[in-house]
Amino acid sequence: MSDYSYYADDELVQLMGKDDHNAFTEIYNRYWKRLYVLAYDRLRSRELAEDVVQDVLTGLWQRRSQTIIRSLPAYLATANRYAVFTQLSKMIPLAAVETLPEAVQAVTDDTAQLHFLQQSMQEQLKQLPEKCRIVFDYSRNMGMSNREIATELKISEKAVEKHITKALHRLRLQFRNYFHALF
What we know:
Residues 27-81 form the RNA polymerase sigma-70 region domain. InterPro entries: RNA_pol_sigma-70-like (IPR039425), RNA_pol_sigma-70_dom (IPR014284), RNA_pol_sigma70_r2 (IPR007627), RNA_pol_sigma70_r4_t2 (IPR013249), RNA_pol_sigma_r2 (IPR013325), RNA_pol_sigma_r3/r4-like (IPR013324), WH-like_DNA-bd_sf (IPR036388). This is RNA polymerase sigma-70 factor, ECF subfamily. The chain is an all-alpha fold. It has 2 domains: 1-91, Rna Polymerase Sigma Factor, Chain: A (Orthogonal Bundle), CATH 1.10.1740.10; 99-183, Arc Repressor Mutant, subunit A (Orthogonal Bundle). It is built from 8 helices and no strands. Helix 1 (9-17) crosses helix 2, helix 3 packs across helix 4 and helix 6 (130-141) packs across helix 8 (157-182).
């Protein structure tokens, strides 16, 4: 058995995709504490934070051969964030929203609007050409730099900038009336 601590994240992901339990164990040991700290910071509950991290890492193992992961830290952070939101949504049942004080209900309404906006934005992004959509996803969701994206997709940095600009322009046009009404 080799020492998996010397493997890079992308190598561990590839090995895990081939059912290598030791690679998964290394990922688990490498990221458990980081994910726990992020979850605990939002939930303020040791048990809930542990449950969230367990769910995220279990999901990673269960989808090991189905998911393409470009950046393991970004993937895990995103999965962790969604798991925390799911946990938070379980803590406040929708029926209880009507009984909340106005300030708290306003925050809940804002959260619902944000969720609607995110869904609408995803629908708009799905309509972009594939390369443009991929570039935007790498930039905004995975946090990759233009240079990293250009290297990954084997295109120029100028092309990366053009795709991001195109995606942002589409989003601005689609949501201009919504944001104009807010401000």
